[in-house]
Specification:
Radius of gyration: 21 Å
Distance between the termini: 39 Å
Low-confidence stretches: none
Largest sheet: 4 strands, mixed
Keywords: Glycosyltransferase, Transferase
Structural class: alpha/beta
InterPro entries: Glycosyl_Trfase_fam3, Glycosyl_Trfase_fam3_N_dom, Glycosyl_Trfase_fam3_N_dom_sf, Nuc_phospho_transferase, PYNP-like_C_sf, PYNP_C, Pyrmidine_PPas_bac/euk, Pyrmidine_PPase_CS
CATH class of the largest domain: Alpha Beta
CATH superfamily of the largest domain: Nucleoside phosphorylase/phosphoribosyltransferase catalytic domain
Number of strands: 13
EC number: 2.4.2.4
Mean pLDDT: 93
Protein name: thymidine phosphorylase
Enzyme class: transferase
Length: about 425
């Protein structure tokens, strides 16, 4: 069957058979179907959608494009966590070591920055020497001995998603629910997990802008997991403003370390604890949420979570001294303060606008081949609800020596991302809903 015929069928709203989707995915994975045809197919799916049966078939085709790990010989319940993508979302960097310190086995296969959002792999690579490309055999060894291992897709594990993930990033097809579901679940099921905790973002800085869309995605993901015998829990969480106070890879690593030391911004700490507690529950290590939270907070308080991160970093070739002293992480060539144009209350902070601004500084990529500068980004000095005087810093830009945009241009965008007024903003809960 020809790829153009399948593109035309989907463009016209027809439902594709599992065999057709399998052939398309196989052809793309081995290079017989070029990027431009797969991009056209993704755009057709973006506008026409997919039935539940098609989404399940797409997920299976991507899952079996490579090796599906069997981790049953490693003692313990294997649980992973996945976020649908947000701005300043560095939760995985703290969550994985906390969960491992509590006794959860955490096999985590992550992705790179997608659109205006950051990627866990890009953040990890800001740690000097850290290797995200490991052979499957080494992945298994580290998981068994350390309790957690964080890598990217390999040629052997879900190679279809590795190619498709990058393509969606640069073809404006990221927000499609079937494509998101296929990407997440094929990657996670290939890990050999027993359970999965999902952080489904909703708001201006998320791919899902509306709560009903986020809820639909969560149910789609949970349905795929249920059909394959995996326990799936999803939290719908607000992403109207950046999570925490940093945007940018090395900056976010440092902030995650703050959380492991018992500090960090309130919202980042709250979400990290909530999601990690769900992992502890899914692993059967606690009898309820109160006990799971006590275990998570205990691992932070006694230092075992921070020690576990150092152990993970060392096992994956990184320099644990950069965790003990985040000053050893990459540093930007210069900084630039963005000041408030007038006094008042910060009524909103546009997460998407700041994510794009950080990307133009070099913290993310607009094309697959774009390099990422681990040192650049944005540090927020004010967030929603804070009072600011005229001329007081709203945030600080960390700029590289050869950014894609000038600091003056980025500063203007960033200033416009803050809405300042006289009326306090309506408070919004961070965790909006739990779907299990």
């Amino acid at each position: 069957m020809r790829a153009q015929d399948l593109i035309q069928q989907k463009r016209d709203g027809e439902e594709l058979e599992p065999e057709q989707l399998a052939a398309l995915v196989d052809g793309y994975t081995c290079g017989e179907v070029p990027d431009y045809q797969m991009a056209a197919f993704c755009m057709a799916v973006f506008f026409r959608g997919m039935s539940d049966a098609e989404t399940a078939a797409l997920t299976r085709a991507m899952l079996y494009s490579g090796e599906v790990l069997d981790l049953s010989d490693i003692p313990g319940v294997k649980v992973d966590k996945h976020s649908t993508g947000g701005v300043g979302d560095k939760v995985s960097l703290a969550l994985a070591p906390i969960a491992a310190a509590c006794g959860v086995k955490v096999p985590m296969i992550s992705g790179r920055g997608l659109g205006h959002t950051g990627g866990t792999l890009d953040k990890l690579e800001a740690i000097p020497g850290f290797q995200v490309r490991l052979p499957v055999e080494r992945f298994r060894e580290i998981l068994a001995s350390v309790g957690a291992c964080l890598i990217g897709q390999t040629e052997r594990i879900d190679p279809a998603d590795r190619k498709l993930y990058a393509l969606r990033d640069v073809t404006a097809t990221v927000e499609s629910i079937p494509l998101i579901a296929g990407s997440i679940m094929s990657k996670k099921l290939a890990e050999g997990i027993d359970a999965l905790v999902l952080d489904v973002k909703v708001g201006k800085g998320a791919f899902m802008r509306k709560t009903e869309d986020a809820r639909k995605l969560a149910h789609t993901l949970a349905g795929i997991g249920r059909a394959t015998g995996k326990k799936v829990v999803a939290l719908l969480t607000a992403m109207d403003e950046p999570l925490g106070r940093t945007i940018g890879n090395a900056l976010e690593v440092a902030e995650a370390v703050e959380v492991l030391r018992g500090g960090g911004p309130d919202d980042l700490r709250e979400l990290t604890v909530a999601l990690t507690a769900e992992m502890v529950l899914a692993a059967g290590l606690a009898g309820g949420h109160p006990e799971a939270r006590r275990m998570v907070l205990g691992a932070i308080a006694d230092g075992s979570a921070l020690a576990k991160l150092e152990e993970i970093v060392a096992a994956q070739g990184g320099d644990p001294a950069a965790i003990r002293d985040p000053e050893r992480l990459p540093r930007a060539a210069s900084t630039r303060v963005v000041a408030a144009p007038r006094p008042g209350l910060v009524q909103a902070v546009d997460a998407r606008a700041l994510g794009i601004a950080a990307m133009t500084l070099g913290a993310g990529r607009s094309r697959v081949e774009d390099p990422v500068d681990p040192s650049v980004g944005i540090v927020l000095q004010k967030k929603t609800g804070d009072y600011v005087e005229e001329g007081e810093p709203l945030c600080v830009l960390h700029c590289g020596s050869a950014g894609a945009a000038s600091p003056d241009e980025v500063a203007g965008r960033v200033r416009d991302a803050f809405r300042i007024g006289t009326v306090p903003a309506e408070p919004r809960r961070l965790v909006l809903e739990r779907i299990a």
